[in-house]
């Protein structure tokens, strides 16, 4: 399983959309973390914090060699942001939902495609299986109250808390 999450950080002058750490997901300054976990929910790889402006598909491009080497022969479940992985990798297979948004050709909707029944079923199955990747993020943000609200210290220090929280999450999984 693969997904990213944004953790808010404070900005003394208020968030500006042009700031490299502005997250449209949070509508605030944030640091993004990428998690790769196994089927049991154990975090196997954690990357970050980095700019939330880095699209998940572009993150795949940036770590292509690492992914090919470390996940050789693996199967990865992600959201639509990881669609690029389906064509980018030879040794790693990506399972992602079909995109629900299709561009309209004109104002009356001509050219708009809807998903087939099989594609809708696929998306439902992927969503069901993918739900478990959200658990660590939810647990981290609710268990470590300092991660619920914008981080007030030096922005890079939130990384230490997220990494420590991920280690505690894994220790809980191992019990």
Which short descriptors sum up this protein?
single chain; 175 residues; alpha+beta; two-stranded parallel ribbon
Overview of the molecule:
There is one protein chain. This protein is an alpha+beta fold. Helices cover 34% and strands 19% of the residues. The chain contains six helices and six strands. The strands form two sheets. Strands 1, 2, 3 and 4 form a four-stranded antiparallel sheet that branches. A two-stranded parallel sheet has the order 5-6. A hairpin with a 5-residue loop joins strand 3 and strand 4.
At a glance:
34% of the residues lie in helices and 19% in strands.
Which band does the percent of strand residues land in? 15-25%
Structural class of the secondary structure composition? alpha+beta
Q: How many helices?
A: 6
* Distance between the ends: 21 Å
Overall average pLDDT: 87
| Quaternary structure type | single chain
> Percentage of helical residues?
25-40%
* Rg over CA atoms: 18 Å
Q: Note poorly predicted spans.
A: none
Helix and strand string, N-terminal first? EEEEHHEHEHHH
Largest sheet: 4 strands, antiparallel
Structural shape: globular
Q: Tally the beta strands.
A: 6
């Amino acid at each position: 399983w693969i997904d990213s999450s944004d953790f808010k950080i404070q900005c003394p002058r208020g968030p500006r959309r042009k700031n490299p750490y502005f997250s449209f997901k949070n509508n605030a300054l944030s640091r993004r973390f990428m998690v790769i976990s196994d089927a049991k929910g154990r975090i196997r790889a954690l990357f970050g914090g980095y700019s939330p402006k880095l699209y998940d598909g572009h993150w795949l491009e940036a770590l292509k060699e690492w992914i090919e080497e470390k996940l050789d022969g693996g199967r990865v479940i992600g959201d639509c942001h990881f669609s690029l992985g389906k064509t980018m990798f030879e040794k790693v297979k990506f399972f992602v939902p079909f995109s629900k948004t299709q561009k309209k050709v004109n104002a009356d909707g001509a050219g708009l495609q809807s998903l087939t029944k099989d594609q809708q079923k696929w998306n439902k199955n992927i969503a069901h299986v993918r739900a478990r990747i959200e658990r660590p993020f939810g647990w981290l943000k609710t268990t470590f109250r300092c991660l619920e609200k914008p981080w007030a210290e030096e922005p890079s220090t939130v990384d230490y808390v997220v990494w420590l929280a991920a280690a505690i999450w894994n220790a809980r999984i191992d019990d």
